[in-house]
Design brief:
Blueprint: E1 7-13, E2 16-30, E3 35-41, E4 45-50, E5 53-57, H1 61-75, E6 81-85, H2 91-96, E7 104-109, H3 112-121, E8 135-139, H4 142-148, E9 152-157, H5 174-182, E10 184-197, H6 202-213, E11 218-226, E12 231-239, H7 250-257, H8 267-273, H9 278-284
Parallel strand pairs: 6-7, 6-9, 7-8, 9-10
Antiparallel strand pairs: 1-2, 2-3, 3-4, 4-5, 10-12, 11-12
Function: Catalyzes the irreversible transfer of a propylamine group from the amino donor S-adenosylmethioninamine (decarboxy-AdoMet) to putrescine (1,4-diaminobutane) to yield spermidine.
GO molecular function, one term: spermidine synthase activity
GO biological process, one term: spermidine biosynthetic process
């Protein structure tokens, strides 16, 4: 358990740490897959930790969640049916439900206790989603679900960090990508988080992108700064057909599809997501 008024150091990459001071400790306990904690940091507010790794902080969780959800849902012409895969009942679901044209939202996760912790201790992550008539919630084996589900227009894949020792590691395999591919409609889009983007670890990010590209013909990586996580965070949109990344039409699309206000995502942030600094883009463009 983390102690009150203690500092924690989270390793971002080997030998590099990000330090947070804990103001108070709200919860700790074991789930099926994780050791879960809820704390309040001095500067970043309420935070969820799984296995001593920060998953979200109140001060900027919306940056991560808006970046994970809205590019795919705005790009797809008719995202009627959306799957939130391995992300529990957190901010991902909240953001998907802001799209009024979405008719059905399915949540599939393997760890119901994490969702219960979010519901109880992290009110800023909720939006009365459990009572929303569009929502269907399931807990169980994600791979088995993908093998038997009806196809989706968009899949938001928001597992914990895709590391080798992750309990969700099986979801970052070729078998999993094949099942996700088959679970998408012909014009479907996968939005997937691919971990931290750091000069020391950019090759690991690229390896994940290459693995997805072995199944999906179109894979577009992007990234956003999530300060509470200590680094830029990487995502990718993968699809069976090519989509144009046209910043010039986003404003009209966003106005027509998304009536709710957002804290982070707008035309400028969208454009910046696809821009890579030279020392990283040299590697990105090789793929």
């Amino acid at each position: 358990m983390l102690n009150y008024n203690k500092k924690i150091e989270e390793e971002i990459v080997y030998g590099e740490y990000h330090t947070h001071t804990i103001k108070r400790h709200l919860y700790s306990g074991y789930t099926k897959y994780h050791y879960a904690e809820v704390v309040e940091f001095e500067s970043s507010g309420l935070a969820l930790l799984l296995d001593k790794r920060i998953q979200s902080c109140q001060i900027d969780e919306f940056v991560y969640n808006e970046a994970a959800v809205h590019p795919a849902l705005l790009m797809h012409p008719h995202p009627n049916r959306v799957l939130c895969l391995a992300g529990g009942m957190g901010g991902i679901v909240r953001e998907v439900l802001k799209h009024e044209n979405v008719k059905e939202v399915v949540v599939m996760d393997e760890d119901p206790i994490v969702s219960e912790i979010i519901e109880k201790f992290l009110p800023h992550m909720k939006s009365s989603v459990r009572t929303n008539q569009k929502l269907n919630i399931y807990f169980g084996n994600c791979l088995e679900f993908l093998s038997s589900c009806e196809p989706f227009d968009v899949i938001i894949f928001d597992s914990t960090d895709p590391t080798e020792d992750s309990p969700y590691a099986s979801l970052f395999t070729q078998e999993s990508y094949h099942r996700i591919y088959d679970a998408l409609n012909a014009d479907g889009i996968l939005s997937i988080q691919l971990g931290s983007v750091h000069p020391a670890t950019i090759n690991k990010f690229l390896e994940k992108k290459i693995n997805i590209a072995e199944k999906f013909p179109f894979v577009n990586p992007y990234h956003v700064e999530v300060h509470s996580l200590g680094t830029s965070w990487g995502f990718a949109l993968a699809s069976k057909r090519e989509y144009e990344l046209n910043i010039n039409i986003l404003e009209n699309v966003r106005y027509n599809k998304l009536k709710s206000s957002l804290h982070f995502f707008d035309d400028i942030s969208y454009k910046r997501m696809w821009l890579w600094p030279k020392h990283l883009s040299l590697n990105i463009n090789k793929i």
